[in-house]
Design brief:
mainly alpha; globular
Length: about 240
């Protein structure tokens, strides 16, 4: 516990609560609401509407919680756009190289791509417009604020910040891989855990971009670049 700064337990707890809201609480509330309205979430259109509501709710929540700094950093980012974008693109390229290398190794071991990636590809082809907005714009912003910004001032050492946030970021992407599985199915697909290496590694470079500029939109831009490229490659059939 010595790595946690004094008087920042509240901030740390708030950051974890926001992540839980993003991954569990808000999706469950929306699902319960739709269930009570007799709306079938297995219907693709209904499911899309539910996902849109989840994004809207967490977006509003994030803006409210970090309203004192988020707009200030947004303005500062554009004032220093040339400098910050250079840092952002530099770490994106480094993260991309790391992810391509480690992803290739993990795919060779598991025999296939991450279940999370497979799900994303399916969503992109089914709902291209929503996917562009959610994966290339809203997703990067929300994930960088949730998995990076909330933890930056909680730790004394930057190394601790990078390790913890990278593991959380990678773990969150694995969550989608195991969602809906029972224990036996999880054990049969245990190799999916290995994908925490490329996902978490990329998160490490996003964190480095944030630390270097002290502006969350630097890592947001890097994240957007990666997700936009991924979406475009799927749409053109690569």
């Amino acid at each position: 516990m010595e790595n946690i700064k004094k008087n920042n337990y509240f901030e740390l707890g708030k950051a974890f609560l926001l992540i839980l809201s993003y991954l569990f609480i808000i999706p469950e509330i929306i699902a319960l609401l739709f269930y009570n309205l007799n709306l079938d979430l297995h219907n693709l259109t209904i499911n899309l509407i539910a996902n849109v509501l989840v994004y809207v709710c967490i977006f509003i929540l994030v803006l409210f919680v970090y309203r004192k700094t988020i707009f200030k950093e947004f303005i500062d980012f554009f004032k220093n756009f040339k400098k910050f974008s250079k840092v952002s693109l530099s770490y994106w390229v480094k993260g991309l190289v790391f992810m391509l290398l480690t992803n290739s190794i993990v795919i060779a071991i598991t025999g296939g791509i991450a279940a999370n990636e497979a799900g994303n590809r399916s969503n992109i082809l089914t709902f291209p417009i929503f996917s562009v907005l959610s994966m290339a714009v809203l997703g990067p912003f929300l994930e960088e604020v949730l998995f990076r910004k909330g933890f930056k001032n909680a730790f004394k050492k930057e190394t601790t910040f990078l390790i913890v946030t990278s593991l959380l970021f990678g773990g969150a992407h694995l969550f989608a891989s195991f969602a809906g599985m029972n224990l036996n199915e999880m054990l049969q697909n245990w190799t999916q855990i290995l994908f925490i290496i490329p996902y978490g590694g990329f998160g490490y470079f996003f964190g480095k971009a944030y630390l270097e500029t002290n502006n969350i939109f630097t890592s947001v831009l890097a994240h957007m670049c990666h997700n936009t490229l991924s979406v475009l490659l799927v749409l053109i059939g690569v």
